[in-house]
């Protein structure tokens, strides 16, 4: 099935060496400066050039515990590849592709790179097991803390597990990353909701620090679709597709509303599930698209019809009416299924946390005594690589506040 097959083929030994040979080996490389997680692509590409794949894997892992995941889903054109000096000659180095080859090598060689530090006698609770929570756990474990992760779902990973389609991020890659972290000593408590199964007060009593690493997992909707039996949110659809391995019954005519990466995931997934007619209507015009260029081009390559600049103004069952934002134009589309991809929001119920537009209304990570925040609710980009950045930074801040290195 196309849904289960990775969209892009991985490099072979010969092709990865060919791509790495294009690197100019810049001194003070701009690509490394542009990576939010400081994964240091210049250094690991240099290792690949000398066939030191073990060294390349160590560079990636020591800086980015989500290295195999970021290799597949990071919008590299916005970060490391944007800074690539090679762009002035022809095109940037395929940094994500090289990183994927190295992390695949690491998995196949069963390398064991990440290790827990000497115990310092302190424990930290992490609420949420998305990428930021997982990276926070790794960094704290390396610093000697004991870590328990509280996850409300039956599986860890957050949107990595329940949202990103299989063809972009295979489940076995996510499971392997999580297994690596539990092998370090993190304990994940599944099916546990804070405020219901355990309270924040109990967490603060049992741990020296509590990290709220909740993601934006709840779908936003539009009032005009309330109660519409033909409508499903993107969050729901992508989760169903992933949990059922693409085995879904779908009509031949589906309308998608939204223009971000999630909307592109929905539209491409529908095509990979052999839906004949997929139309995506987008609020933004093409020159202001929110989706990454890679995601947009991939969606177009699958044959999705994308109509830009239109806002939904009415919905009557299967029929949706749109009006253009800038010109006197109206559009009516009738579809057997409507999928809304108009944003996501965080749910901070039971956490004692006030959010402003789904973010904490302050910079930094400490929200209250013993309580820290990271992930989507912290300020910054909502990408996996930024989640890694925030996870590393909040762990460092916790260590500075608790003085963990003084308890060896």
From TrEMBL:
Domain of life of the source: Bacteria
Annotated function: Involved in pyrimidine base degradation. Catalyzes physiologically the reduction of uracil to 5,6-dihydrouracil (DHU) by using NADH as a specific cosubstrate. It also catalyzes the reverse reaction and the reduction of thymine to 5,6-dihydrothymine (DHT).
E.C. designation(s): 1.3.1.1
Protein's UniProt name: dihydrouracil dehydrogenase (NAD(+))
Dihydroprymidine dehydrogenase domain mapped to chain residues: 3-109
Gene3D superfamilies: Alpha-helical ferredoxin (1.10.1060.10), FAD/NAD(P)-binding domain (3.50.50.60)
Database matches in Pfam families: Fer4_20 (PF14691), Pyr_redox_2 (PF07992)
InterPro entries in alphabetical order: DPD_II, FAD/NAD-bd_sf, FAD/NAD-binding_dom, Helical_ferredxn
Keywords: Oxidoreductase
Subunit composition and interactions: Heterotetramer of 2 PreA and 2 PreT subunits.
Domain FAD/NAD(P)-binding: 122-384
Enzyme class: oxidoreductase
GO molecular function: dihydropyrimidine dehydrogenase (NAD+) activity; iron-sulfur cluster binding
Reactions this protein catalyses: 5,6-dihydrouracil + NAD(+) = uracil + NADH + H(+); 5,6-dihydrothymine + NAD(+) = thymine + NADH + H(+)
Coiled coil: none
